[in-house]
Hints:
The complex is a heterodimer.
Chain A: H1 3-54, E1 68-72, E2 84-92, E3 97-106, E4 109-110, E5 113-122, H2 126-129, H3 131-159, H4 162-173, H5 190-239, H6 245-275, E6 285-286, H7 287-297, H8 299-304, E7 308-313, E8 318-319, H9 323-339, E9 346-351, E10 355-361, H10 389-399, E11 403-409, E12 412-418
Chain B: E1 2-6, H1 10-22, E2 26-30, H2 33-42, E3 47-51, E4 53-54, E5 57-58, H3 59-68, E6 74-79, H4 83-89, E7 97-100, H5 105-119, E8 126-129, E9 132-135, E10 140-143, E11 146-148, H6 152-163, E12 168-170, H7 171-179, H8 188-205, E13 212-215, E14 219-222
Parallel strand pairs in B: 1-2, 1-3, 3-6, 6-7
Antiparallel strand pairs in B: 4-5, 8-9, 9-10, 10-11, 12-14, 13-14
Amino acid sequence: xxxxxxxxxAYAVLTFCVLSLGFAIVYxxxxxxxxxxxxxxxxxxxxxxxxxxxxxxxxxxxxxxxxVQASPVAATDxxxxxxxxxxxxxxxxxxxxxxxxxxxxTYPVVGGRPYRVASRAAVVEPRDAYLTGLVLVFAWTxxxxxxxxxxxxxxxxxxxxxxxxxxxxxxxxxELGQPHPIxxxxxxxxxxxxxxxxxxxxxxxxxxxxxGLQEFSxxxxxxxxxxxxxxKAKLELLMDSExxxxxWQTLTTMHDELERLAKINQALTLLAKxxxxxxxxxxxxxxxxxxxxxxxxFADLAEMKSxxxxxxxxxxxxxxxxxxxxxxxxxxxxxxxxxxxxxGGQLEVELxxxxxxxxxxxxxxxxxxSELFGRFKKGNSALDxxxxxxxxxxxxxxxxxxxxxxxxxxxxxxxxxxxxxPAE
Amino acid sequence: MxxxxxxxxxxxxxxxxGYLGQEHYICEVAxxxxxxxxxxxxxxxxxxxxxxxxxxxxGISLLKLLRKEGIESSxxxxxxxxxxxxxxxxxxxxxxxxxxKPFPLPELHARIKAIMRRRSAHKNxxxxxxxxxxxxxxxxxxxxxxxxxxxxxxxxxxLYFINxxxxxxxxxxxxxxxxxxxxxxxxxxxxxxxxxxNLRKKITxxxxxxxxxxVYGFGYKLSAPxx
Lengths: 424, 227
């Protein structure tokens, strides 16, 4: 969720809460003031009746006022003569409904005699009269506020968060292996300045460490080649001397292990080289020619495993790739497809303008397919491979922006290379 | 035939020189740039085996110097650089061939032979071993005049055997020779077994003796039966 959406959502929830609370307060206040107003009116009425009584005017008989009763208090009545106000729901015959009714009883003294004046009135409930209006007012306010928040948050994020977004973009563009430092735009916001400074410092250090490590591993594997060559030569010379069978076997193992060491070392040197290889922008490889040529070069290996190969090659497919890297990539793909195949299996090669698909039958890989592009990951640990071929393939594809994917289903391994679409 | 080996790693130089000596080459060793330059100025060599990384200079500049001065020796670069370095940067420009460390000694031998053959194109272009003859022009192999129907890989394999006759060839060395060292395809040694098997069968079917012997599952050796 984007930062300004979160802001908007938080504002919306907050606004909703505040408005709801406001609505409750307004409703309660309104409710109370309506009752208070009714009580006030009844007080006026009772006062009016008392005055009329004092002037000796007829009051109670007034048929227009059936809700007022005035009567002298009997001497025997011992009820406390205090003014009482009662508000409670009652059945109203005129309205045919249960309504909240206010009853006010006062005890004015008229001509030395206590009177009891009882009046009542139905309260106009805010629930009935104003609720819809109130809700509408609040709903509109809410909608208006929300719209304001949405617009403002967009504006704010555009204006205030602009350096932040630019920094994010800078981080996304950043690659550890790139030759130049990270590029972050200048900003006046103190926090963003601090963030940028920190990022620049951190990435610079990471780049330095990375470069150092890379140089080290490249030099190390490079320096190892000569001693390995020396040991290998010595072993080979030793082979030409008279040896017992036991010595032979030891020598064989040593030689095989050394061979393996040399292969790993070579692959690592190659990978290190590819890490900071700058692809020439104009390099184009003619896959329509290279793919069948590679297939032909591996034909004898495929034949020995009794594989059936089918090829569908579109003509004139030229993609941005260095020719010798392409050869390396194809060699790795084809040798994998043959090595991990089953005897009598199948191999399918399909080259189109958009991609290259290599599918081969084979046993299910023992590791998740997504991991097989990593170094030293092997789909089948029984085979005597070092498991670095796909890492090399991936690196070469990445260099030129091609996308490589691998999946396994129904006994088929499929490696697909989607060519980068040329920018138009 | 005289070979100059320019290599600063003393032990490796000794092994290579020893091996080439066994193959009846006269091999001299120079361990520095200056020593190599001096030797090249004083003597003439048929082949120069050149390491790129030298303590006091770069083998490539030595190669350029060599060509500038019109020295006609063939040059094989021996380097710890990756094969890809040569292809991507044209590192081997001006050299006749290159071989990356570590390499099987028989492979080096085969490369030297191939270069020598190219240099003396008019001379003997037929390799013989016992009753086997191989015409390097037409790539045809015969046993007692009878044409062997070999695939390209099998022909290549037979030539490799004949060039290194009497010598133990490991499966890895054969695989590297036949398929190059581009892939980490270590189980190509199984394919070597197949190829050797087919080759032996074709030779014996054509009436030849089985000159190829297996050595403890380690590799193969081409030798005359009485040896």
